[in-house]
Amino acid sequence: MPEQKVELIIIGDELLAGAVKDANASWLADLLLSIGIGVLRVTFAPDDFKELKEILDQALARTGFVISCGGLGPTPDDCTRRVAADLFDRELYTNKRLLNLLAERYKKLGRRFDRIARTQAKVPRGAELLVNPAGAAPGVVLKDESRTLILLPGVPVEMQAITETALRSYLEENFALSAPHILLLRTVGTLETGLAQRIRPVLSRFPDLKVAYLPHTGTVDLRIQASSERKKSQALKEFSRILEDDLYAVGRKELSEVVGEMLLNRGQSVAVAESCTGGMLASRLVDVAGSSRYFLGGVVSYSNRAKQELLGVASGVLELHGAVSSQVAKAMAEGVRERFNSTCGIGITGIAGPGGATRTKPVGLVYIALACKDSVRIKRFVFPGDRSSIRQRSVIAALDLLRRYLFRLSS
Q: Which of 23, 24, 191, 203 has a CA positioned 20 to 30 A from the CA of residue 357?
């Protein structure tokens, strides 16, 4: 069965001006692909009636199927509903049921439901509405004999909430979809080029596999598309063997989720002491629901005084080796483990830049220590990138150090 194709139109002057980064296109494309809808093209469009109408009209002429994100708010620049109504020769009318739902929502939020807010209840006549469980503006579906146009809000949390519920059901009910055999492998501790070399023997034996490399800060995903479920299973077996413990997840799990599950399953706990990452590691751990069962707490010890008073790092160690050193990372990890009485403690200290470097200690130098009951592991890194990237890479490296330790406990 041929793959259904769609074009995405991402709407907003703020996106074209670079004031806001798009968070919708890649997420939406990924979800659509998982149910058998391939994205043919992504276009960014302004909040301008004439320009947007031309862009949507051309996209509908190419594929007959378009999904847009944005322009459904109550302000005058939000013109997507008016454009869609014009394209399909429909009048805009006030949907009474939607009006009542919006009034209730505004009342619960303690906001005034004024004339401008009421414009969100105007929809093209004959449109099907998709319930928005996370916001005010619903999704809108317009159809004629040859065209389908779906309007979604531009706020990412609202777009995702509609897509995962009402839109997904609509697409599966109204399109003859055949979900592709896709395998997502998440790796850490290796580069794109290294991955390509390692998996080359598998690809030579399975030439029909389609592989996409998806690099992120500190990790690389492999999206593998097979021609059948059997070949997908074979590929998973082969790639798992080659990648070994550099493979941290099959599917969409985050590294912090994987680490959390491993801690929970092994009855272990962790506490963290952070300097250059400034609480980012703790934040990543508590992003996972239920993390209180294994994450006991953390200390942001940015100054030397904090390292001494809160973690017990000896002043002599700081004076002799400097705050960015393996010795201080070790002392931080041991200190936080002792203070929280956790199974494991992690210490991170480094130079995130752009200043603070010396001849022997460059920007990007980071020491990460893992202190557990049976051992202490210390790793030295020199990460590339700007301040933000270095800090993010440090967090990934710390989680991975803990993951590999827990993995070997059960090996």
A: 191
